[in-house]
Amino acid sequence: MPALGKQRVAGVLAVFVGALGLGALAWPNINSTTTPILAGTERQHDVPAGAQVTLDGRRLSVQEQRDPAAPDVLLRRYVVIPAPRLSLGRPLDLAIDVPASDDAQPPASNDAALPTPLPSASPNPTPPSNPAEPAPASATRARDVRHEFFRVVSRSAAFGAFGLALLILIGLPYALGGAGTNGVQQKHGVFYALLVENDKLSLGRFQFLLWFMPAFGMYAALSVPLAEFAPMTSTLALLLGLSGITAGLSASAPTGARSGAPEAPAARMSQAVENDQGQTEVSRYQYLVLSLLGSILLTVAFLRTLSVPAIPTEFLFLVGASQGTFLFNKVAQQRP
Fold first, then answer.
1. Residue 3: exposed, middle, or buried by beta-carbon count in 10 A (0-12, 13-18, 19+)?
2. pLDDT tens, position by position, 88-120
């Protein structure tokens, strides 16, 4: 069997094992009547006005989210549900105690407009009621208690989903092109073919892969074990967008290939910091180091907390400036 044929078989097997593993992690929560929460994380749950919320008998404080532009506008009321690791294997009972929907306030009385009745002439008048005496049960406000159950999912399920998602990403190029006869694949290899542009390792494609792989793994880790779509943070979406735009603009920029130039050698990692003339550039080196450092820190912080960390705005500006410098130098080198 040719080498590329073996690679395609290995890629198909990796994708199959990854997809099967992700399905096994999501299956327990597909038809479950309880809402899953990852251990060691928190989940926000909206509650109606006037609600009293308890979790396994412990009172939870109701918080309010208001519009920053208009503080008087109330957007939502919610409680934060913790998922301690000690709660594995048992459901959490969230009791939401709210006034009954049919419990309306009595209408305003117009007795003040009526004449005051005369005292009764009965020889045995009824004694006045004691103000300290509790009101009868019929006078209390009716309330409606709704119970919702949550199940704590082990952190190992999130770690497994993260690894299986990366396995699919690595195996997918081989599964799709492992048996092809493309000259780029024959020359550079199947996985390198994704990163090669004009017989040279593309820094724009490489940095996009550095951000996309951990982002895909994190989203799978937060979504698959819970069998639901996890919210995407704005900073991560912005970073992926900037990296994708940089990769696209880098591919659309004119190349510095010269007519009659010898055939380029096979792609190598050092080409990520070299321009089209084979010279090492500080701007490319800075861009690569920032992307690599940010990707590692993002992955480590996520695996520690199982939540997408907030990327500092200053770091986003620094990465954006490096991307702009990289594109400017790439275009400036093509001037005659």
1. exposed
2. 767 889 999 987 765 444 444 444 444 444 444
Give tens-digit pLDDT for 226-265.
998 988 777 777 777 777 777 777 666 655 544 444 454 5
Q: Would you say residue 119 lies in a domain?
A: no
Number of structural domains in the chain: 2
Say if CB 315 and CB 294 are below 8 A apart. yes
Q: What is the largest CA-CA distance in the chain?
A: 126
Cβ atoms 102, 68 nearer than 8 A: no
DSSP 283-310: HHHHHHHHHHHHHHHHHHHHHHHSS-PP
Q: Which amino acid is at 296?
A: I
Do residues 15 and 166 make contact, with C-beta atoms less than 8 angstroms apart? no
The DSSP 8-state label assigned to residue 121 in this structure reads -
Cα 146–chain centre separation:
29
* Predicted TM-score (pTM) of this structure: 0.75
Residue type, 224: V
Q: What is the mean pLDDT of the chain?
A: 78
Are 207 and 148 part of one and the same domain?
A: no
Which residue in 178, 250, 149, 175 sits closest to 208, CA to CA?
250
Q: What is the pLDDT of residue 302?
A: 93
3-state secondary structure of 20: helix
Instruction: State the alpha helices, DSSP H only, in the chain.
Output: 3-30, 155-177, 183-188, 190-195, 203-223, 234-252, 282-305, 313-332
The H helix count followed by the E strand count for the chain is 8, 8
What are residue 309's phi and psi, to 5 degrees? -70, 150
> Over the stretch 123-172, which tens digit does the pLDDT of each residue have?
555 555 454 455 454 445 566 888 999 888 999 999 999 999 999 999 99
Collapsing DSSP to helix, strand or coil, 139 comes out as helix
**CATH of residue 68:** 2.60.40
In-domain check, residue 15:
no
